[in-house]
Amino acid sequence: MDANANPNFEVATIKPSAPEKPGKGFAFRGGHFVTFNTNLNDLVAFAYGLHSSQIIGGRDWFGTDLYDIEAKPDAEGQPSHKQMQTMVQKLLADRLKLTFHHDEKELSVYILSLASGGPKMAMIKSTADPNEPGAFLFRELGDLIVRNQTMAVFATWMQTSVMDKPVVDQTGLTDRYDFQLKWTPDQSQFGQFRGTGASVPTAPNDPNASPGLYTAIQEQLGLKMGRGNVPDDVIVIDHAEKPSEN
């Protein structure tokens, strides 16, 4: 999609997810933006680059009612991550009448930073056009492929799909990278996938199994992820309505 385009969804269908439908996610395929088994916390977090803990004041159904969305942009080509966020922001305002205001709150977060020695060779600077969409794909949970992503975007995807707290990028890295990250998840990770039929691996007794996430990030990427407390942006929900089907 033209990098200067400010797209809208020309047509959007929102319907409740089928009971017991496995999996969960966001994708752009066949010229359409699609989600499955996504709740309003998921959608707001995706649209504004937040973790669900940064969304305050939502009704109970924000985290329980699951929806599938299929929407067609009014511009040709595959949108960038930012363009997809913009379209979802407009959809939330139009179809769910979402309004909110910003605030700041000290939050418990994970801080992504450089380990001693800096990035490892596994982190290859991407040669793709910066305007081309990146990728953040799981071959299985705990086996991640990243393409053409900045560390800031990587942190956003990690907090959206993996971690139980926001992830703050303090690496200082501004380039785009390609890499693979493989680890054995623990019970604090992939919480939003539990109950959706996705299989979340658990730590095996196999001594040859992949290490935990924090060790894997340092050994494979030359980065560190640790806990901290920082002032961070939150959004306070003023109004939202359940989406009507069409």
Question: Can you describe this structure?
Answer:
There is one protein chain. This protein is of the alpha+beta class and 246 residues long. Helix content is 18%, strand content 35%. The chain contains four helices and twelve strands, in the order βββαββαββββαββαβ. The strands form three sheets. A four-stranded antiparallel β-sheet has the order 1-5-3-2, covered by helices on one side. A four-stranded mixed β-sheet has the order 4-12-6-10. A four-stranded antiparallel β-sheet has the order 7-11-9-8, covered by helices on one side. A hairpin with a 2-residue loop joins β2 and β3 (32-38). α1 (40-48) packs across α2 (81-95). The radius of gyration is 18 Å and the shape is globular. It starts with 8 loop residues before the first strand and ends in a 7-residue tail after the last strand. The model has no long low-confidence stretch (mean pLDDT 88).
Topology at a glance:
Blueprint: E1 9-16, E2 25-29, E3 32-38, H1 40-48, E4 55-56, E5 67-73, H2 81-95, E6 99-114, E7 124-125, E8 135-140, E9 143-149, H3 151-161, E10 167-169, E11 177-182, H4 213-221, E12 223-239
Parallel strand pairs: 4-12, 6-10
Antiparallel strand pairs: 1-5, 2-3, 3-5, 6-12, 7-11, 8-9, 9-11
Helix pairs in contact: 1-2
Put the structure in a nutshell:
18% of the residues lie in helices and 35% in strands. The chain has 246 residues and is an alpha+beta fold.
